[in-house]
Amino acid sequence: MTSRSSALASTAPVGAFKAYAILMGLYVLVFGPSIASQVVMMVRDGRIAATAPNPDQLWFVVGMTWAMDFLLVAFAGIALWVTARTCRIKVTDIFTPATRRSWWQSLGVFFSVLAAYITGMGARARLESTMATTDVGIIMNSADEALRMVLLVAVGQFTSAFVEETVAVACVVLLLTAASRPTWEVAIVLVIAKALYHAYYGWPILIMAPVTLLTAWMYWRTGRLWPIITAHAVYNGLFTAVVITTIITAPDAF
Hints:
Elements: H1 6-9, H2 16-45, E1 49-51, H3 58-87, H4 91-94, H5 103-130, E2 137-139, H6 143-153, H7 156-178, H8 183-196, H9 209-222, H10 225-249
Parallel strand pairs: 1-2
Helix pairs in contact: 2-3, 2-7, 3-6, 3-7, 5-9, 5-10, 6-10, 7-8, 7-10, 8-9
């Protein structure tokens, strides 16, 4: 995989076994708790669904969730540091563009990734609706539940963008490129890495594979990670805004 971004161009060679061992360790550190909780839900309830906390436990659960969101940002920082050390680059290199062109390239990356997220998640939602899948994913059966869910994910909507794009995209691309893994192999790992912690959406989440690959290609090609993170965060924010608007204007829609 011929690199284009400055970070990829300057990585030191890494053995495949070492790269995968480090990548798996970092992945478990960051996403392990989420995957484990989804496994518990599947074993206990026979489904994986994110539901709003009970009203009497709302602020306790919200506080614990927000604390975990910030902890995951710290874990992502550790993952970036370990990846940089392994590839013998600086952490700042991971965010350094391949070329210092105008803001036009950053805007191009931002809008491309944002459009991909809107299209991909829209397609996933339509696929779920045709399958009449109502007992998986994020479940909101009333305006009150929707409001509690908005509070629950208020911080995570934005921290998750940083965590996911740095670990499941940048770290994967950097480590496997440093290990000289073929493009098809990197692509498969990227899709699996993104899909695993989104298992609560069920198998329709695989329709997001092109979005994952586009995002990774944008990073590989330009090295512009911040526009990718920002686009993901903006998409999450737009989704939350739609939910809030629906709560206010059409509460019976839930």
